[in-house]
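## retry 2 of 3
previous attempt timed out at serialization; input unchanged, resubmitting
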Amino acid sequence: MVSSSGQEPARRVTIHDVARSAGVSRQTVSRALNGKDEIDRSTKQRVLDAARELGYRPSRFARGLVRQDTTTIGLVIPDLRNPFFTEVAASALEAARACGWHVVVYDTADRREEEIGTLQVIGSQVDGVVGYFSCTEDELDRYTRGMPMVLIDRDRPTERFSCIRIDGEQGVHAAIAHLVAQGHTRIGMLDHIGRAEPSLRRAWFTAAALAHGVDPGRVAGAAQSADGGGAGLRDLLATHPEITAVFTFNDIVAVGALREARRLGLDVPGELAVIGFDGLQFGALMEPPLSSVALDTRRLGALAVEQVRRRLTGADPLPPEDLVVRAELRLSGSA
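## retry succeeded, writing output
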């Protein structure tokens, strides 16, 4: 997001900045701004002076529409229309409710400019952040300085940020091993069309294919939707009509591929086996039911909330080796 002058807008001043400037806690700033009687007059004035000098504008939360003793976390999701992210959000909301927390959900539509816009406002609305970001660590810190953050599907934890890592390598290897054992030697992949570089899931597919003597070059891109999966399968079959099995970036794409295979008159799994990635609940409702490299979305959301809870309370954070969610092959009717 760029201003009309062409310069990047300044980071919004947060309640944490006021607390740091006044030398008090965030809770003390909240009490001072809301006219509470629990703090002495001189401290209150110091906070008000700091807020005025910094140009701080309280959010609706700081103005008292939410109780000041209530913890609020921000949950940032790339696309709530994708059932995978809906399942992750539901699990995070369940874990947050168990803590007695409020949750504000932000949908960035998988666009960088929406991420930046979210970061610009989130600092004054929540106490901690859990979610998916493609922004650099410098950008994240610029807009959320001092705020506990837990990044999902990111594998480079730092002292500043915790990361929940998704490890699908063994699950993808198991998927390719299963297909080869079923007699498939011409296996394709539908990858994420929106990425500038090949996805990590494609890297797992390539390594697994090479390990089993399969050519990993039969790949086409697919938009992250059922229609995208159908179009991707048409493109893949146009360039590689010999394929008898396909692994997809996620279950949404796999559903589209299944639908397109049936439209083309292909028997699944007899003429074309299909394996997705995510293990979403709706896959069991497909005909045939979808095989998938499945993630435990409930554990994913719960881990993220637990880690942000530890950072908020000052407890020892979970070590990186405990912040891994591993995917496992879940076979069903499509492969």
